[in-house]
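Example 9 (inverse folding). The structure is encoded as follows.
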């Protein structure tokens, strides 16, 4: 995707996102639903399968990857959008759909709808919202936040965070409770106390290795 860099001076206000191109459509829903429990691992293809089939380019380049994907009760749902915000240490630019590129990485894909259960075995670099970071970035000191931008389902939104490093691939679940409708990104400056924002503790996740 071509760079679309913006500065952090852009006001954090409610906004509509641009429509996806035909190559960025969401994965069709599956008839079989799954339930993703909060704070527990989600079953996806094994690390060896992911390395060889899915994220070869990230690892081949020696880079890090951070990906998210989500569903509503295991089903696809339009108008359910979770956004990934990643800020490397000592970096002024926070990578997101607002800021697509910095000196240390790229926000490669913005997914705007919840996928069905089949999306969890798709290629993360295509089906997941995905940020790729240079190998010099310390993941333990990198800030990662998830924002429930929009939730038209009025149901709980559950998903998976995947962290890709040369030492392996780590994963964990996240969950936004029902009745949250999303903040359209307007509460970024007050994210610590806003329920539409969830912090991903990379240091704790990497310590599980």
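The amino acid assigned to each position is listed next.
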């Amino acid at each position: 995707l071509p760079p679309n860099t913006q500065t952090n001076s852009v006001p954090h206000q409610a906004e509509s996102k641009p429509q996806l191109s035909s190559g960025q459509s969401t994965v069709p829903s599956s008839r079989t639903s799954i339930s993703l429990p909060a704070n527990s691992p989600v079953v996806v293809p094994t690390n060896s399968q992911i390395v060889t089939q899915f994220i070869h380019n990230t690892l081949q380049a020696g880079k890090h990857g951070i990906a998210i994907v989500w569903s509503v009760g295991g089903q696809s749902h339009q108008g359910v959008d979770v956004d990934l915000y990643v800020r490397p240490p000592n970096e002024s630019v926070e990578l997101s759909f607002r800021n697509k590129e910095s000196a240390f990485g790229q926000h490669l894909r913005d997914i705007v709808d919840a996928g069905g259960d089949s999306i969890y075995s798709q290629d993360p670099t295509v089906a997941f919202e995905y940020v790729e970071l240079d190998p010099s970035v310390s993941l333990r000191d990198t800030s990662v936040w998830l924002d429930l931008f929009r939730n038209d389902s009025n149901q709980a939104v559950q998903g998976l965070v995947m962290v890709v490093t040369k030492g392996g691939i780590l994963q964990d679940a996240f969950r936004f409770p029902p009745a949250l409708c999303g903040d359209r990104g307007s509460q970024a400056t007050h994210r610590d106390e806003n329920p539409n924002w969830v912090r991903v503790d990379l240091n704790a996740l990497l310590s599980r290795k």
